[in-house]
Amino acid sequence: MQKYIIVNQPEKWTVAIDHISVISSQDYLTNPKFSKLKKARIFNLCKDYSYQSKGYYVSLLAEARGHLAIPTVKNIVDLKTLKLVRIVSDEFDDVIQHHLKNIKSQEFTLSIYFGQNVAQKYKELSALFYRHFQMPFLRVKFNHTTKWNIQSIRAISENEIPDEHKESVRLFANQYFSKKRYDTPKLIKSDFDLAILVNPKDPAPPSNPKALKKFTELAEKMNIYVEIIEPKDLSRLSSFDALFIRQSTEVNNEAYAFARKAQKEGLAIIDYPDAILKCCNKVYMAEALQNANIDTPKTCIVHKENRDSILDITGLPCVLKAPDSTFSFGVKKAKTRAEYDALVTDMLKESDLIIAQEFCPSDYDWRIGILDDKPFYACKYYMAKGHWQIYNWKAKNKNEQDGDADCVPIENVSKKVLNMAIKSAKLMGKGLYGIDIKVVNNKPMVIEINDNPNIDFGVEDAYYGDAVYTDILSAFKQRLES
After folding, report:
1. Dist. CA 83–CA 261, nearest whole Å
2. Average pLDDT over residues 114-141
């Protein structure tokens, strides 16, 4: 397996490692050679991992390409989530107190390079933090009140390493990169009560009140206790055995924090943190679908260096998507070159990469509900009145914000559409997904993979009724029993 160290400026990289190529983040993100590479291990040492930066996208696209990345996007997001940092630190508080008990000052900084510290006595503590956060360069600050507390944890760049540490870092790096296996955090499994996360302020909730009521009533008949919880209830999550997310999911909102905490504490989950990370980013999705040879409208990943050539591929009109757009928010249509230029300029201010897609008009989109690799409902979603999308958030009349829907028997859906939906869902792993597919000139094309699809009373359950709810509840039981 080929190994690559990804940095922002290779010419400034000073740590020489045998048998490993050092390349720039720009090259990895934009050179087609790397998107076609089948087996690779990626060590992402970019100076910035902030959301939608190049460092973030290196790890995201590595996963889309099937490359093994350190850190993963999950590791990056975990580090930015203070609540999760505290949860993890509580897990090994005894180890922290034991290793720092002889320090006389009120503050202490632990610098961790490839899982090690320059002082051998902090070897166990450094390895513990690395196993949980998987960051090549990590700095943990502690302060002492009645006991030692974590003040902050952050990834650092190579230029923040003190000169007196660099010789040790070279040694640690060579030891680290010569390994055949790399540590990953271990998760614990558990058992029985179900929390359904709902945000009362959600502008586009994935389940309406009647559907939530159905889940609760049918769960009771199946001997599952259900409680509706809200974002303020994160501290209570440990008292449940399972978590069902029924609020809009984004990497930067509380839904991800709930999913990640649930995963760390061994709860059964729908949807998984990995599903949120992957499905909530259109850049990941575009690359994953392309690598799996799944048909889509002509799709390009747009960045500042190729923006002028995109329309040669997609043509006009062209659909532009922010990487983390959901429910048609952040999805725009450019009818002219001038509109395209203006929209791309604005969108690239928010993200280093965006998506451009060929516009494929149709009367409706298929939505195939997939649960743990099996179709369990099928709907036709029609376009909103006088609009090119299913949702028209600018409609003055609320009744015209979304189009009609028909729920049909799964056996009435063509095999091509069903097989494409199943194959697409498998890219994201087990879980609950809604696969949006257009059929244009008898050719099905995946438009989107949704990690948090609607289950609304009167829509997705219109044909199969209670079975839609009991299938999901049964999936939780299966997770808990296994």
Report:
1. 9
2. 90
pLDDT one-digit tens code per residue, 386-408: 777 776 667 677 666 777 999 99
Task: State the angle between helix axes of 73-80 and 82-91 in degrees (0 to 180), rounded to the nearest 10.
Answer: 90
Q: Of 277, 359, 363, nearest to 324 (Cα)? A: 277
Beta strand 268-270 pairing with 318-321:
unpaired
Beta strands in 308-397 (DSSP E): 318-321, 331-334, 354-358, 364-371, 374-382
For residues 257 and 312, give the distance between their C-alpha atoms in angstroms, rounded to a whole number.
Answer: 41
Residue 28 — φ and ψ, nearest 5°? Answer: -65, -40
CA dihedral 264→256→350→312, nearest 10 degrees, is: 90
CB 124 within 8 A of CB 117: no
**pLDDT above 90 as % of the chain:** 59
Encode 62-87: b = buried (16+ Cβ within 10 Å), e = exposed: bbbbebebbbbbbbbbbbbbeebbeb
pTM reported for the whole predicted model:
0.69
Per-residue tokens: 91: 């897990």
Q: How far is CA 377 from the centre of its chain?
A: 24
Are 306 and 30 in contact by the 8 Å Cβ rule? The answer is: yes
Residue 330's contacts (CB-CB under 8 Å, 6 or more residues apart) are 321, 322, 324
Go through 194-224 and write b for each residue having 16 or more CB atoms within 10 A of its CB, e for each that does not. Answer: bbbbbbeebeebbbbeebbebbbebbeeeeb
Rounded Cα distance between 303 and 393, Å, is 27
- pLDDT digits 0-9 by tens, 339-384: 999 999 999 998 999 999 999 999 999 999 999 999 999 999 998 8
CB-based contact 394:403 (threshold 8 Å): no
Q: What is the mean pLDDT of residues 24-50?
A: 91
Q: What is the DSSP letter of 384?
A: P
CA-to-CA distance for 457 and 213, rounded, in angstroms?
9
The number of beta carbons lying within 10 Å of the beta carbon of residue 465 is 11
Q: Are 107 and 45 in contact (CB under 8 A)?
A: no
Report residue 416 as tokens: 């091509």
